[in-house]
Amino acid sequence: MKPSVKELISQMTLEEKAGMCSGLDFWHLKGIERLGIPSVMVSDGPHGLRKQDEAADHLGINDSIKAVCFPPAVLSACSFDRDLMHEFGDAIGKEAQANDLSVVLGPAVNIKRSPLCGRNFEYYSEDPYLAGETAAAFINGVQKHHVGTSIKHFAANNQEYNRMSCSSDADERTLREIYFPAFETAVKKSQPYTVMCSYNQINGTFASENPWLLTDVLRGDWGFKGYVMSDWGAVNDRVAGLKAGLDLEMPSSNGVYDKEIVAAVKDGSLDERILDETVERILNIVFEYTEHREKQEFTLDADHELAKKIAAESIVLLKNDSVLPLKETETLAFIGEFAKKPRFQGGGSSHINSFRVSNVLDVVSENANITYAKGFPANADIYDEALAKEAVEAAKTADKVVIFAGLPDSFESEGYDRTHMRLPDCQNRLIDEILAVQPDTIIVLHNGSPVEMPWLSRVKGLLEAYLGGQAVGEAVADILYGKCCPCGKLAETIPYKLSDNPSYLSFGDGENVTYQEGIFVGYRYYDAKEMPVAFPFGYGLSYTSYAYSNLRIDKPEITENDTVTVSVDVTNTGDIEGKEIVQLYVRDLTGAARRPLRELKGYEKVSLKPGETKTVNFVLDYRSFAWYHTGIKDWYAASGDYRILIGASSRDLRLSEKVHLTTQKLLPLKVHMNTTLGDLLADERTAGYAADFKKQLEDIFGASSSQDKGDGDVAISDEMNNAMIASMPLRNVVSYGMCGKKELLDMIEEMNRL
């Protein structure tokens, strides 16, 4: 009979237990042959396998195996499709089994705080609800094959500059509402086998040795069961990290930190019980994989087709002034080297050695009448007079022009951030020249993060292909020619210019990065500011049209223990089959806290034939209405009205209804001498105490309902008096002789006992 994990640990030496807490090399965990504990391998990445060849060096810099590059997160999140993301994860899980990989290092769910972050192409969204739902679906797909995922980078890793040492300084409400929920949702809905902690500090403490982060929040609040691994080289103090909840150090430190663990146990500064629990968490995951090995083939061709499907379901049609879809009978000019060499993935640790890459020129129909002109290079910002002239001449004689523009590899990558939001100057210059001779111009973008579009008002068509994976050429061609009806929607806002971004004045700082915008990230900021944007969150066009009707709420009044079901009918009013992404936002009307105008709390993707109507259902719970109250260290929704909004984007809201929430959860009383009468009057528990003071002050200030006011009273309105009374601190009732100080202090003590 196979011994249990606890029995195996009891047979280990102290040195063996310490050794299990760090990698064997760059990609492998240690095994112990005498105890039958195998060494297992982990591998990047979240959108395809970056497993190194068997001859790989210990530094992990040699070539990886040929694999399938699926669309990176920047595009796949635009699918707003849980089922598709589960299918994506399922394929990754099978590929990992076929290649002897125990854990896939992804998905990456850090919030897109700024469009400048060099690694944004690996992250899903600016919205934590969308990021969490997308990640949970992907993780469940992978882990159904007993292959682990490592959701990353926990937490507040939102820039590349100084990411290994800088401190992300944010208040707890901001962390809980914006930067934590994607991880929280994934833990609660899919239990990733591992969590990868980030390099950075959070409010001055490294994530790798932060007990509040790794133990109190991750394990205590959310119930995480797996092990925490470090990002590669993220360990600062190994023993402090172990105590905080960091289980596995990656990669190997050649035994340096293992010796520190052994010494700490021997000198009594580290309880060996903590070490045992750490090893147990690691081994549970190791055996979860090794005891459920599956015989799988590495189905490269089939997975290429899935990569194409994901890309086609995610690409976003941003503008179409009756120029798309293209027709084979039209004379077309395809301009830009991205048409031949599409940029389909980002640089860094997730870079896949793709076994095949399609480009749009190779996959369009042989009957299509297309002239190709390079125009500008795909990998540099160089304006070539001869190439530009050739492109402009081709544009003049074509019925329509499609320009394939985007960001070169050097413009964005892991390891550094962008310094601006512009396309290469050579591209913008050529676009201007082509628009001067050809009004029927369409632009296809290949980029890992939003770009400024100075030509936006003059182009007639715009397709955001982001980084589309290795089948991007086929997916783009199918959408351009109408073989696929576009249905992706933006998982992030595209602002007009970089300085519009809420983090503009604090992004990219060095030692301490102040998250001064707080919870107002992405559309939460732009919508609250009523700021014009190029394209809002959740936006995307189609070749067909949709109508929303018959919004129903099953309970107009709910309590904190209820759920409410929201239903809406969606009809395809066009003449081709398509898919619509229906979005549900909630707005807090109570005024109990400063909150965004609306927040995404539900979405569903529905497929509809021409003329077909389907009902889409959403279920909301107390958390859907709540915000994080730092005073009670919990989620809180005040009693009052909330508006439920249904729409096609954060700014295209078609239907709305109110729901009234009554909560029994009371905020703790903290009455003191400077508590205002307005605060006391607003709380039913203390309103009676303040009512007499209010009446006396009205008499003192002359705040009456009399209409007979002398000239001296004209400047003093009832509104002014009421405002003054509401802001009056309790201490002033002593100053005005309405109450003795001891009597007031006794009253305060009595109120605080309520």
Please tell me the overall pLDDT: 93
Number of domains: 4
Give me the side-by-side strand order of the main sheet.
Answer: 9-14-13-12-10-11
* Shape by Cα distribution: globular
How many individual β-strands? 25
CATH C-level category of the largest domain:
Alpha Beta
State the distance separating the first and last CA atoms: 60 Å
Find the CATH superfamily of the largest domain.
Glycoside hydrolase, family 3, N-terminal domain
Helix segment tally:
23
CATH topology-level fold name of the largest domain: TIM Barrel
Described by its quaternary structure, the protein is: single chain
Structural class by sheet pairing and helices: alpha/beta
Helix content: 25-40%
Q: Low-confidence spans: pLDDT under 50, at least 5 residues? A: 703-707
Q: What is the CA-atom radius of gyration, in angstroms? A: 29 Å
Share of β-strand residues: 15-25%
Largest sheet: 6 strands, mixed
User: What is the CATH architecture descriptor of the largest domain?
Assistant: Alpha-Beta Barrel
Briefly say what this structure is.
This is Glycosyl hydrolase. This protein has 23 helices and 25 strands.
Question: Can you give a write-up of this model?
Answer:
The chain is 30% helix and 18% strand. With 754 residues, it is of the alpha/beta class. Strands 9-14-13-12-10-11 form a 6-stranded mixed β-sheet, covered by helices on one side. Strands 1-2-3-5-8 form a 5-stranded parallel β-sheet. Strands 17-25-24-19-20 form a 5-stranded mixed β-sheet. It folds into 4 domains: 5-290, Alpha-Beta Barrel (TIM Barrel), CATH 3.20.20; 301-528, Rossmann fold (3-Layer(aba) Sandwich); 546-662, Immunoglobulin-like (Sandwich); 677-752, no CATH class. A hairpin with a 4-residue loop joins strand 22 and strand 23 (634-636).
